[in-house]
Amino acid sequence: MKICVTAKGSDLDASVDPHFGRCNNFLVVDSETMEFQSIGNDQGSASGGAGVQAAQQVIGKGINVLITGSVGPNAFSLLESENIEMKMVSGGSVQEAIEAYRSGSLESINTPNSAGKSGK
């Protein structure tokens, strides 16, 4: 299973970034081997539409689960349409977030939990 965690850094010890569309990096982690790929978020400084573009970027990596703090309405709809499970985390490291997911202690994101921006 591929798990994507929004991160402030580029390794498993990095702090989780709570903002999906504007995070620094996405860490795509194989939940069985813990091998990971760090992907820079090219959309982080976009004036609008960052969430949708970020969603397209991680969907292209074949993820099954997204762990983050907040997801805006447009990104949420796109991720949901791809059947990506979304889980909320409020802090800690990427490694800790994955361990929390494995233990079943992360809350599901069932509706958008960030206002997002329209880009207008």
TrEMBL record:
Domain Dinitrogenase iron-molybdenum cofactor biosynthesis: 13-102
Transmembrane annotation, as ranges: none
Pfam family, one: Nitro_FeMo-Co
Entries under CDD domains matching the protein: MTH1175
Source species, domain of life: Archaea
InterPro entries noted in UniProt: Di-Nase_FeMo-co_biosynth, DiNase_FeMo-co_biosyn_sf, MTH1175_dom
Xref: PANTHER family: DINITROGENASE IRON-MOLYBDENUM COFACTOR PROTEIN-RELATED, IRON-MOLYBDENUM PROTEIN
Protein name per its UniProtKB record: Predicted Fe-Mo cluster-binding protein, NifX family
